[in-house]
Amino acid sequence: MSGLEIAFGSIAVMLVLIWSGLHVAITLILLSFIGVWLLRDNFDLAARMMVAAFKDSISDYLFGVVPLFVLMGLVVSVAGIGRDTFDVAQQAFRRIRGGLGVATVAANAVFAAITGISIASAAVFTKVAVPEMRRHGYTPHFAVGVVAGSSVLGMLIPPSLLFILYGVLTEQSVGDLFIAGIIPGLLLAVIYALGIVAMGRFTPAFIGGGPDDAEDAPLMGWGEIAAKLLPILALVALVLGGIYGGLFTPTEAGAAGAAGALLIAVLKRRLSWSDFWQVLVQTGHTTAAICFLIMGASLYSRMLAFSGMPNWLGTSVIESGFSAEGVVLAMMLVMIVLGTILDSSSILLLVLPIAVPILQGLGVDLVWLGVIAILSVEIGLLTPPFGIAVYVIKSTLGPDSDITLGQIFLGAAPFAAMMGAVLLLVFFFPFLATALL
Fold first, then answer.
1. Spatial distance between the Cα atoms of 37 and 48, rounded to a whole number of angstroms
2. Are the C-beta atoms of residues 57 and 152 closer than 8 Å to each other?
């Protein structure tokens, strides 16, 4: 078999194995090992390459940012900062029809600036916002849909775990990627808020509630508002200000953010020893899962390089006359489709080793491409049948909840559509991602 036959055959087998339920990382490692073995007809070489890929893929200093930002996000969740943010936003938008939905989006946007993890946002605001919205008469599907939709802001508004992963995979500046995500992230939050107001005006039966849906909520004084917001603003200033001000590298900012989150949690007396242990265990689990995926992707990209498929594909695309925009559009569609069966990290790890070499040859700005890629894969968090954010919300609601998976997908559908609109805006107007660079 030729190298190209082995490479394309591995892609076909990979899709079959993933559809069959085999873990993505195991699939990548298995096919990479077999591919190198077939390409070089040398079992020992395949084994040595696997060991080298495992070591090289996670030995980069930059990779230390992953567990640090995961730790910060989980501590922030435990410290109740999401609850504090929602309380303030609820008061600010209390007189708007759909105001609690807008408050959820606003609170998630702020929460995203200190966590960077969509799943954490989905879990926190399912507990915080859904009961409040249902108590004020919002429909079940809208209450969970707005949480699912706004949770994706955690992966777009910096700091973002997916931007870190993209930066590691493409060797781009994580700081530049963070900056590139600011305008699209805020634009998405604004479009969500406007969309909720429009639904409240034109399809009120879909969302329920009313213009006075939070009138019975107790008013907070300025002192209480300041007490709730100052820790949040301090943490945002520490992490993002440190990165953009040149005081910290992204890894150092992650360490500073994790230390700041721990300090806030201790001062608020919201972090018991048992909570802290659970946070550390969950941080380890999340980091290990990401490490395993990155090692598999590194090994698979090396196998593809041995096969010569990326160079052949890049040359073929260039010679065929496809424009850079056409290739990017194809990548977007592939990522959105893969989002129906895979999580965001796995999609990046599968698609980028093939797409990036081609797009580099076409002169595509990889920072702009990063924003496009994150928006594309995040749509998959809201789409069936996988929709990981939807399953997180269902799990957080508990087995006794009367809200079904179908209702969550129904409520998330308008927000997936709005995210698709933002994706097209960034695609057609790249300055939305690059204006601040």
1. 11
2. no
Residues 311-347: pLDDT tens digits? 776 677 666 767 888 889 988 988 887 777 677 777 8
Asked if the structure places residue 129 within a domain, the reply is yes
Cβ neighbours of residue 186 closer than 8 Å, sequence gap 6 or more: 109, 157
Domain count, the chain: 1
CA distance 73 to 66: 11
Q: What is the extent of the structural domain holding 269? A: 62-290
In a domain, 56, yes or no: no
Contact status, residue 109 vs residue 186, Cβ threshold 8 Å: yes
Answer yes or no: is 336 within a domain. Answer: no
Q: Are 234 and 259 in contact (CB under 8 A)?
A: no
Whether 232 is in a domain gets the answer yes
CA distance 324 to 52: 33
Closest CA to 239 of 286, 178, 287, 186: 178
| Residue 306 to residues 3, 27, 33, 38, 300, Cα–Cα distance (Å) | 8, 18, 12, 11, 10
Angstrom distance (rounded) from CA 29 to CA 32? 5
What is the average pLDDT score of the chain? 81
141: number of Cβ within 10 Å = 21
Specify the pTM. Answer: 0.78
Assigned token pair, 125: 């605001």
Identify the bridge partners of residue 208 per DSSP, sorted by sequence position.
Answer: 138
